[in-house]
Amino acid sequence: MSYVLAASAEMLYTDLPMVERVEKIHARGLGVEIWDWTQHDLHELAETGATFYSMTGYIEGDLLEEDGIARFLETARESVEASKIIECVRLNVHGTGLDSNGQAIRKRESVTAAERSTARDTLARLADLGAETGATFMLENLNLLVDHPGTPFGRAEDTVELVSSIDNPHLQLNLDLYHAQIGEGNLVELIREAFPWIGEIQVADVPGRLEPGKGEINYSRIAQELHTLEFDGVVGLEGWASGKSGAALDAFTAIFRP
Q: How many angstroms separate the CA atoms of 3 and 234, rounded?
């Protein structure tokens, strides 16, 4: 197995303080992922000794509006500095800022060709920031039907198009298969198409965003494909536990670490 496994401390062991969640995931030999770093004591998390593979790479802003672009890039730089505390080199971004409920702050049902070009230019500047600072930013796809309606560039089709057109190693894809299954499906072919630009693959089952094995996605087939392709990035569980968090992690690792 050439890839590494991680799990979101935001969605597991939710009855515990964040530092204890991190410790429990780390004790299983897994990497850890967090979301909005401003909500956590990063120095406290760093003391756990855990390896952090992903955190939010911006706090405000978007890819399209003049004021949003400025805030997007400004808070991306702030996120890079924060990431150094926990030595997290992958920073996750989306097509627009999301509120505390994960909803697009500036919703759009469609974008023009000019706006797509603006988004590409913004992401190219983000990639340059990554090259300057040694960070790697990842653009994540989101589903528009259930969880994130109105998010521009939410579909995997959009994120692949944008990241591949820039083709800078400091801007990669965070290919979330839960979101892709809801919005697009055809996951194995999607992985093959996007493969040159994938830094991380996030997994959870559909419906319910639960651990693999609780829904319709054939994650054993996904794992087989990743082995065939010799994927060497991160596979992250970003889903809720249907029961105990430990059992959810057991199910995840049984499929992806056979």
A: 6
CA 191 to chain centre: 15
Tokens of 216: 């319709």
d(C-alpha 115, C-alpha 215), whole Å: 36
Q: Is the pLDDT of residue 109 over 90?
A: no
Q: Say which CATH topology domain 4-256 has.
A: TIM Barrel (3.20.20)
Largest separation between any pair of C-alpha atoms in the chain? 48
Residue 60 burial (CB count, 10 A): 15
What is the tens place of the pLDDT at every residue in 59-86? 999 999 999 999 999 999 999 999 999 9
**CA count, 13 A, side-chain hemisphere, 251:** 22
Q: Which residues, including other chains, have CB under 8 Å from residue 126's CB and lie 6 or more apart?
A: 72, 73, 76, 93, 137, 171
Closest by alpha carbon to 92, among 53, 128, 129, 42? 53
* Residue 250: Cβ within 10 Å count: 14
Higher-pLDDT residue of 160 and 98 is: 160
Summarised one tens digit per residue, pLDDT across range 174-204 is 999 999 999 899 999 999 999 999 999 999 9
pLDDT value, residue 1? 56
Query: What pTM, to 2 d.p., does this model score?
Result: 0.96
Amino acid identity for residue 212 in this structure: P
CA distance 142 to 105: 14
**For 203, which DSSP code?**
E
Cis peptide upstream of residue 258 (ω within 30 degrees of 0) = no
